[in-house]
From TrEMBL:
This is Trafficking protein particle complex subunit. Keywords: Endoplasmic reticulum, ER-Golgi transport, Golgi apparatus, Transport. Belongs to the TRAPP small subunits family. BET3 subfamily. GO terms for cellular component: endoplasmic reticulum; TRAPPI protein complex; TRAPPII protein complex; TRAPPIII protein complex. GO terms for biological process: endoplasmic reticulum to Golgi vesicle-mediated transport. It is found in: Endoplasmic reticulum; Golgi apparatus, cis-Golgi network. It comes from Volvox africanus. Part of the multisubunit TRAPP (transport protein particle) complex.
Length: 202
């Protein structure tokens, strides 16, 4: 005799299937997120000896998150087949991935004027940069380093290794600086891109 299956709503989160309805949108209380993230930043501040060490630790956490987010979204939404084009993966991060992580798409995606291997993604009001309080000596600290790590993790997992850094940039029409992410792709990525473009031309 087959054992009865427990109701879906009673399944442990580990036992629940990853597949979900598109109408099922994960929600987290903003106040809960702000509190937990602020506490985690304070935890790192207490253990870091410098801003660079603090940002390095936060970036590494983001990298691990990015690896898993890309895998999860690829499985759930079936939209991320093996990407071979740089712009395809960057548009995915700028759009669906950012929407999943922060509740909205990023505000801008541009290629640098002085290099094919450099791109910028901008967020005018990055969620992780709100509500963060650090000691005065840590004021140059950029919480967007977490998002930079997430982006690096997603790119690395998709086969586009890159260096990703977060920068505050003043904007004349905004009280708070916007966050600009600079993406510098590895030479191997650009070599593959050149090969693919040459192959398309025949």
């Amino acid at each position: 005799m087959n054992a009865r299956q427990p109701p879906k709503h009673s399944l442990n989160i580990v036992d629940r299937p990853l597949s979900k309805n598109r109408s099922e949108v994960p929600t987290v209380s903003l106040s809960a997120f702000a509190y937990l993230f602020s506490e985690y930043i304070q935890y790192l501040v207490d253990r870091a000896n410098s801003i660079s060490e603090l940002e390095d630790r936060l970036e590494k956490v983001g990298f691990e998150v990015g690896l898993r987010v890309l895998e999860l979204l690829s499985y759930r939404d079936k939209v991320l087949r093996r990407k071979t084009d740089v712009l395809d993966i960057l548009r995915f991060i700028h759009g669906p991935a950012w929407q999943y992580l922060f509740g909205k798409t990023a505000d801008d995606l541009q290629q640098a004027a002085n290099g094919d291997d450099e791109y910028y993604i901008r967020d005018y009001d990055l969620l992780v940069s709100r509500y963060i309080s650090v000691p005065r000596s840590y004021e140059p600290f950029n919480p967007g380093t977490l998002a930079a790590g997430i982006m690096r993790g997603m790119l690395d997992s998709a086969g586009f290794p890159a260096r990703v850094t977060a920068h505050f940039v003043s904007h004349k029409d905004r009280q708070r600086p916007i966050t600009t992410f600079m993406i510098k792709l590895e030479p191997s990525v650009m070599q593959r891109q050149a090969y693919l473009e040459a192959a398309k031309k025949g």
